[in-house]
Amino acid sequence: MRQVRMVSVAGILGYGYPESSLAAALERGVDMIGCDGGSSDPGPYYLGSGKPFVSLRALRRDLRLMLLAAVKHRVPMVVGTCGGAGGEPHLQLVAQMVREIAREEGLHFPMALIHAEQPKERIRRRIREGRTMPLGRMPPLEEGTVDRAERIVGLCGPEPYIRALDEGAQVVLGGRSSDPAPFAAHAMRAQLPPAQAWYAGKMLECGAAPALPKGPDCLYVTVREDGVVCEPMGERACTPLSVANHSLHENPSPIRHVEPGGVLDTADCRFEAVSPKATLVTGMRWLPAETYTVKLEAAERLGHRCVSVAGTRDPVLIGQLDGFLGLVRELVAGKARDLDIAPEDYRLTIHCYGANGVMAAREPVREIRSHEIGFLIDVVGRDADIAAAVIALARTSMLHSDFPGRLCKEGNMAIPFSPSDLSAGEVYRFSMSHVVVPDDPYEMFPIEHERV
Known about the structure:
alpha+beta, Alpha-Beta Plaits
């Protein structure tokens, strides 16, 4: 039976993994070492700013171990969504780090970079041609949204990864990609069915997340013609329940996973323990799409954020919290006008932890309120000066606003930091969740080869 063996070192490159787990996978035998390098989960800041969301020290450590193993064992090493968000700065950061590690360790190999950041004119042209479509509740894509975007990326499918490997690359670094795509690519390149290939990618994209207990580890997946076997390399186990549970995550539908070129249907999957640590999954299906589409992500700059943290255990204030916060907002608005700051120049949000701080207006439990409340005061201003001015107004208003029955005539908030007002830098929002119809799966993702 034809099969391919892949190991994913971690859920995100830079999250860390035991070196012993990678060694155990290599001893077992692998045909590819890979890792998903990023995600949109940490929010739009990283795409907009071009910065990673893991430390450079952690990123270098994880890369170095993967690179040494791949070169020594003469197998491909593939990383998707490099640098956290997969834009051009993120891809170049990881590529330069790989070159430095190779120089330090005396390594030699062919490397390919798959670029995923999109020129704005390309997307404008597709809009004019009627080749873009919104996802979910997003409005149709407009050229103004393209113009305001700080950075636009497309989610690469498996085809450019297959081409890069076919063209001789041993190390492949991809920009923003569909999370399973780098793994699915290697399995499909080995002539295994796309259903099994994509399912393996869904398991491998999150490292050892399909295993119990939860924790950092490497996931070893064998893709066969009849199914996929998942097994962690450390002191964990992939059980039928843990694997089935993992297969439901990060998707609007628990059984239909839309990918470039089709849909992975898991409605008829069966899960069978084949050892105390490994589970075999069968029954997955691949439904090819009539039209190949690529998802777009973009980040648009909103302004500058400043925050302040405070807390209270004043029972009189907590008993009339909503009225107190309403008064604070009114005071801030008035004082801001005195500084020639218009209401549309900033947004003030006061998160109350201990009173609907997590779900806010969507919180279904209203009867319970803590004896102490933590406040995260969040101001997004049109620029840094406005954000700093309004956060200072909000902090002093929280400290000194009066309310009926107040006994303490001084500040009754505990502020844990000095300085009390903290700059959180530039603020972005995701402005695109659309698909575009390319000429082919390769058009939007040019491949660049080099000898390292």
